[in-house]
Amino acid sequence: MGKATQTQQIKQYLESGGTLTALSALEKFGCMRLAARINDLRKDKLPIASRTITKGDKRFAEYYINTL
Q1: Residue 68 pLDDT more than 90?
Q2: Every domain of the chain and the residues it spans
Q3: Cα separation, 53 vs 40, whole angstroms
Q4: Is 6-65 CATH 1.10.10.10?
Q5: Which InterPro entries does the entry link to (predicted)?
């Protein structure tokens, strides 16, 4: 069996309780288009939620599985 795709790796990571930002996805999976991969997973009915993180004057999304 071949290596898992970025989308599969991201899905497994989120399902295990992890959270991802664009920077952490690049570091962990070499994924430069996290929002596109999240969109793919949402189309497959994965309940991914996001929250906005603010650090100084920078804002970015953090994605996680909504378990509620």
Answers
A1: no
A2: 6-65
A3: 22
A4: yes
A5: HTH_proteobacteria (IPR055245)
Amino acid at 21: T
- pLDDT for 13-53, tens place per residue? 999 999 999 999 999 999 999 999 999 999 999 999 999 99
Give phi and psi for 42, each to the nearest 5.
Answer: -65, -35
Strand partners, 52: 61
Q: 3-state secondary structure string, the chain?
A: CCCCCHHHHHHHHHHCCCCECHHHHHHHHCCCCHHHHHHHHHHCCCCEEEEEEEECCEEEEEEEECCC
Which pTM value belongs to this model? 0.89
Report the candidate in 5, 34, 9 with the shortest Cα–Cα distance to residue 20: 34
* R_g of the chain computed on alpha carbons: 12
